[in-house]
Amino acid sequence: MTPDDRWSHLAALDEELLKGGVILSEWCSVIVRETDIAFVHSAHLASILTAMSGIETYLRSEYAQSKKGRFGRPDRFVPNSEHFERKPAYATQVPQ
Q: Which domain of life is it from (predicted)?
């Protein structure tokens, strides 16, 4: 595959998979662009690593905005919550 064929392949994948569009942060867009460039120039390991970085950047930005924990649900531990009252160690009685 020539570099022009690879660009055509990427453009076709974008058209097919991103029908509804996508909203990315500017930094994530830069990483995705670098991934595309690495793929076109046959730098396979670089394209894999930068793709993973782009995915991580996107997921971190999504979870930071929604304040959700992993797996799309709110974090279970909430500091100072009435559900997580901690008793001091000396409050428990040891049987004699």
A: Bacteria
Asked if residues 12 and 36 have their Cβ atoms less than 8 Å apart, the reply is: no
Which residue reads 């919550």 in tokens? 81
Q: Please state, in angstroms and rounded to a whole number, the distance separating the CA atoms of residues 51 and 28.
A: 10
Residues of the chain under the 70 pLDDT cut: 65-96
Identity at 89, one-letter amino acid code: A
Unique residue bearing structure tokens 């055509």: 8
Measured distance CA(33)–CA(56) in Å, rounded: 15
Contacts of 13 (CB under 8 A, 6+ apart): none
The Cα–Cα gap between 55 and 10 comes to 17
Write down the pLDDT at residue 19. Answer: 81
Beta-carbon contacts of 47 under 8 Å, excluding residues fewer than 6 positions away, are 35, 38, 39
